[in-house]
Design a protein that fits this description.
The protein is an alpha+beta fold. 24% of the residues lie in helices and 25% in strands. It contains 6 helices and 12 strands. The chain has a 6-stranded mixed sheet with strand order 3-4-2-1-12-11. A 6-stranded mixed sheet has the order 5-6-7-8-10-9. α3 (119-141) packs parallel to α4.
Length: 260
Amino acid sequence: MKIATFNINGIKARIETLLDWLDAAQPDVVLCQEIKSVDETFPREQFEDRGYTVETHGQKGFNGVAILSKLPLEDVTRGLPGDDSDEQARWIEATVMGEHTAVRLCGLYLPNGNPAPGPKYDYKLAWMERLHARARDLMADEMPALMAGDYNVIPQSEDAANPKAWEQDALYLPQTREAFRRILNLGFTEAFRARTQGPGHYSFWDYQANSWERNNGIRIDHFLLTPQAADLLDDAWIEKDVRAMTKPSDHVPVWIDLAA
């Protein structure tokens, strides 16, 4: 089961790029972030024509997450538990039925949090507390499960080409990284780092200042796996070359391959 997470930075702006990538890469499941579309206007037919079931949790002009799956999906839920007043579309869950086992998928778009300090950073940290609670429940369920998407977290200095430039940024502040570690320490495996060590591996390059051309990137798109899902992990990788496509997102797909 090949699963990718991909912040597409707007479905309307990136539809042709996304379709070209799907045709070439042929993932079984894609967790998309920043669709920037309400559910009713998401162009689902173009994905359904390619054999994908489409589930969305959209929001006009901002945020929004989706699941595209060639495998059967069950028990789809929307919204991160813990705050009924939260109107931002940043979380979607479903159970995907693999050939050998079912896997609980959680697609997320964690708040950016800038400027920090401030209300946006307070919201980020509060959202991460809710994420910790959901992660704890997933661990207690003892089934293969994963939480994947754009975490807007640079976990360590090696995950940035120029870490000093991020020291005052919400993505790299100590409180952010500590909140991320608290989730990992519940027993999750960070899939990419389970397969690849060392600096120089990024999933995001800003559109400004020739960041792509200079490889001035950061790694902020992650797969976190429960022990039961980690036992199924065959591989994990970043598909860097997608950033060089026509009209690219500022993110690239991150992949895992599960023996599911």
